[in-house]
Automatic annotation (TrEMBL):
This is RS21-C6 protein. The lineage of its organism: Bacteria, Candidatus Saccharimonadota, Candidatus Saccharimonadota incertae sedis, Candidatus Minimicrobia.
């Protein structure tokens, strides 16, 4: 999947598949939003560690 050229329909299909893989497909929209937000936060923390942004130490 190329993020530069993905269509909205393709993104929706990808997110649907991701929710199924993570077992989120039985959760409410609010719960999925919270779980997704948590995943984004973990990604942001990993990027900070990798880049050393704002004093994060590489491990």
């Amino acid at each position: 999947m190329n993020p530069q050229t993905i269509s909205l329909t393709e993104l929706q299909k990808h997110l649907d598949q991701t929710c199924k893989e993570k077992g989120w497909d039985k959760n409410s929209v609010t719960e999925v939003f919270l779980l997704f937000t948590e995943e984004v936060g973990e990604l942001a923390k990993a990027i900070r560690k990798e880049t050393g942004f704002k004093g994060e130490k590489k491990t």
